[in-house]
């Protein structure tokens, strides 16, 4: 039962009841209708803080994120199979219903990346690429046309389908590599990448995601960039949330963007610090004296400072930026 009187939360709880009673989350009219209603309910900007909801709603939210992740995986797999039946799959990407969102999100992420990492990266890792690696494909095709993309996924079938989409393209087939492995088993290899993208659905609950971030902090090179997807306001019913002030030990947070249009995910960009602690170890008094407060992200006092900024549409305030004072980061 929903213990919250808020109309939005009541509606989300109603949709959760309907979604959780579905026999299958594979694409169908019922599945598509319910998830569309859920997204439209959670899309408008809303000041709700999901961490302050009662325990029963918190459980509903955790279950809903898991169901959304499962449905998204099945949707991507379904369309990857359809695309794989074409002679040139990349010419038909627009049949995927959310392709335009990926175009916008990739443009946004590339714009944010170039502000903080102006050189063109030679190698990027994308963790959690899935059967339809649209972010890698769009970035490689439209924005980073000389960069190699190393896509990591734990599911061999997902990687097999993804490879089938790019192998007929003479350029992308050379620049897109697929690794079937758990990123937690990749250590030295992470030093090869100037930029690492972490997909929204890698680490479906908070503790799993934080463990992955700790692993990346231990193994990425100092100065390398980590790009993560998060969620803000009511959109946190759809995706896990990264708290930039708590969850990014070993990284300097550069900025956080919260879109307010149909691009659902927030984007967090952080730089691997020159000093990163081993997982679970907090800074000693000596580290603190030297300015190495590694137990939390630097600048906790800055975490509430939000200023309007939009790198894409200057006339339309669609994105908020949480900007950290660069002087204090140094």
UniProtKB/TrEMBL annotation:
InterPro entries: Nicotian_synth, SAM-dependent_MTases_sf. It is an enzyme of class 2 (transferase). Keywords: S-adenosyl-L-methionine, Transferase. GO terms for biological process: nicotianamine biosynthetic process. It holds the Pfam family NAS. One of its GO terms (molecular function) is nicotianamine synthase activity. It catalyses: 3 S-adenosyl-L-methionine = nicotianamine + 3 S-methyl-5'-thioadenosine + 3 H(+). Its EC number is 2.5.1.43. Synthesizes nicotianamine, a polyamine which serves as a sensor for the physiological iron status within the plant, and/or might be involved in the transport of iron. Belongs to the nicotianamine synthase (NAS)-like family. This is Nicotianamine synthase. It comes from Rosa chinensis (China rose). The lineage of its organism: Eukaryota, Viridiplantae, Streptophyta, Embryophyta, Tracheophyta.
């Amino acid at each position: 039962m929903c213990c919250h009187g808020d109309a939005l939360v009541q509606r989300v709880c109603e949709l959760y009841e309907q979604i959780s009673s579905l026999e299958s989350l594979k694409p169908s009219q019922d599945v598509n209708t319910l998830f569309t209603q859920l997204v439209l309910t959670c899309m408008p900007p809303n000041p709700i803080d999901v961490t302050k909801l009662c325990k029963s709603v918190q459980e509903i939210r955790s279950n809903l994120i898991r169901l959304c992740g499962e449905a998204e995986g099945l949707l991507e797999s379904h369309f990857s199979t359809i695309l794989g039946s074409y002679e040139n799959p990349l010419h038909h990407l627009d049949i995927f219903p959310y392709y335009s969102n990926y175009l916008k999100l990739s443009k946004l992420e590339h714009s944010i990346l170039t502000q903080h990492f102006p050189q063109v990266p030679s190698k990027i890792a994308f963790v959690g690429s899935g059967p339809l690696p649209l972010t890698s494909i769009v970035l490689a095709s439209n924005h980073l046309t000389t960069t190699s993309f190393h896509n990591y996924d734990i599911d061999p079938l997902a990687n097999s389908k993804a490879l089938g989409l790019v192998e007929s393209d003479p350029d992308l087939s050379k620049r897109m590599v697929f690794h079937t492995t758990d990123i937690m088993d990749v250590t030295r290899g992470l030093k090869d990448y100037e930029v690492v993208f972490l997909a929204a659905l890698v680490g479906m609950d908070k503790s799993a995601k934080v463990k992955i971030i700790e692993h990346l902090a231990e193994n990425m090179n100092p100065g390398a960039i980590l790009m993560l997807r998060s969620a803000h306001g009511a959109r946190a019913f759809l995706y896990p949330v990264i708290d930039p002030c708590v969850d990014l030990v070993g990284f300097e947070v550069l900025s956080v963007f919260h879109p307010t249009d149909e691009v659902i995910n927030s984007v967090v960009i952080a730089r691997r610090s020159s000093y990163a602690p081993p997982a679970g170890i907090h800074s000693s008094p000596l580290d603190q004296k030297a300015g190495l407060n590694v137990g939390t992200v630097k600048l906790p006092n800055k975490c509430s400072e939000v200023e309007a900024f939009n790198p894409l549409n200057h006339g339309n305030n669609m994105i908020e930026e949480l900007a950290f004072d660069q002087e204090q980061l140094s």
